[in-house]
Amino acid sequence: MKSRLIGGLLLVVGTSIGGGMLALPIANAAMGFWQSSFFLLLCWAIMTCGALLLLEVTLYFPSGSNMLTMAHGTLGKPGLVVAWSSYLFLLYTLLCGYISGGADVFANLADYIHMTLKPWQASTLFTIVFGSVVYGGISRVDWVNRALMFGKLGIYILLVILIAPQTQSKNWQGGDYHVISEVVMLMVTAFGFAIIIPSLRIYFEDNTKALHQIVVIGSLIPLICYILWDGIIIGSLPSYGPDGLTSLMQNPRPTSSLAILLSNTLHNPIVTTFFNGFTSICMLTAFLGVALCLVSFFADGLKMGTQGKDSLQLMIISLLPPLGVVLFFPGAYMRALSYAGIFCVILLLLLPACMVIKGRKKFSSPYVAPGKLVIPYVLIAISCLLLLNESMHLLM
Which of 240 and 184 is assigned the larger pLDDT? Predict the structure, then answer.
């Protein structure tokens, strides 16, 4: 069980620490380190509460049930429609972002070994290679993810050690907290690990103690990593100017451009090599977790098996649409992560809160999320504020 517990924690951490981590310093630079750290802590608390509510709802139903079954069973047809649309758009949008980011990483690695990959070639190669891992099911994803996660955490620690001496406390000063209205959805997306809870329930059956530990501990690790990462990147690089972090917001290849910026500023080729490896693994672990969730979602919604011919069909309908979007709109990395935040709020905050309020009147669960009914109603209010804020930005 200890081995499986570690695997579950790494799946949560791997789903969280992905493309969002690479984008956070770029998005948070204008807000400043201290302000962004406060809002990261706030987003962690909100998203973890939503995850615990979703865990309770998951246990209302038989193992193998996904968001569609849960929404329909608690909220009826309106809940089913909202779950279908928001889940589909969220996971497709995330996969668009991770395929786009993964293609950037592949193209950068190809340049490193003096090869040239066109954007469509890098995107297709990334999707095929790592889609084949997802095709093997959660057990294969678990073991591949474990290897990648240990590598990622090891490189992360080395990067912190190498870059930390170059940080300057003056770079942490200043910033405008009002920028939170523009980047809050990216922060929300960075804690969107709850999408993997139905799959974890299958893996751990009804072991509520283990599932609770995985959600809480697994979400704390990304929070600590995000704050440290923001600290060393924002502290070692300028925030403004043509070579500043904020200039990368509109860059079609932000991850590789950030690696170049680090290399030019720190003059340390070892940092550049480690950073390229780190970005590669981040994209892979996030892609694996999200793709696994989408396959499970379609299997539940379309009542299909996860073996043989059905499995191949599930892979096609899961990966082909986001790949197609990336092929026609390359460089959609930052924008995709921001749009994903909208569906994160609907699916991982608003829906779980509503499902718990209705579900507690109809079902019993071996696990009850803390906070009684106060937390669900607070999360509904926060969700409405976040969606209103994003709607205003889209209309401007």
Answer: 184
